[in-house]
Write a structure and sequence with these properties.
Number of helices: 4
Radius of gyration: 23 Å
Number of strands: 0
Oligomer: single chain
Largest sheet: none
Shape: flat
Distance between the termini: 33 Å
Helix content: 55-70%
């Protein structure tokens, strides 16, 4: 995490320099504002990573002699048989299609989105998978 924190802090210094130079040279407020906001976002991420790196154990990414397999571990639990992502994706596809075709399709796809979202979140709270 130390490396990532330093990278983001150096990126924010670069973006700040570019924002100042661009602001004086172009005198265009929208691009200058976007660059200063990018500076703010990158300094926040860099500060968070540097702040967190001091409080956690050293990871494999901070060891120069580490292998890729040293940072491997459990990624989490993934449901092997869930149909809910398909329902959620169909609802999202119809909602975005409604922007192109007509807003009436967004209203029709809202229940499909809610069924998919609540079904996926609450999948292991009812039914045959309750005790997993």
């Amino acid at each position: 995490m130390k490396i990532q924190g330093r990278m983001f802090i150096w990126l924010s210094v670069f973006i700040l320099a570019v924002a100042v130079i661009y602001g004086f040279w172009a005198k265009e407020p929208v691009g200058t504002t976007a660059l200063f906001m990018s500076f703010g976002l990158s300094i926040m991420v860099g500060y968070y990573l540097a702040f967190t790196a001091r409080r956690v154990d050293t990871g494999a990414q901070d060891n120069k002699d580490a292998d890729v397999a040293d940072d491997a571990g459990e990624l989490g639990f993934f449901s092997p048989h869930s149909w809910q992502p398909l329902v959620l994706a169909a609802g999202g596809a119809f909602a975005f299609l409604g922007v192109a075709i007509g807003w009436w399709l967004v209203y029709i796809s809202a229940p499909l989105l809610l069924i998919g979202l609540f079904g996926w979140v609450l999948e292991y709270y009812h039914g045959e998978n309750q005790n997993q």
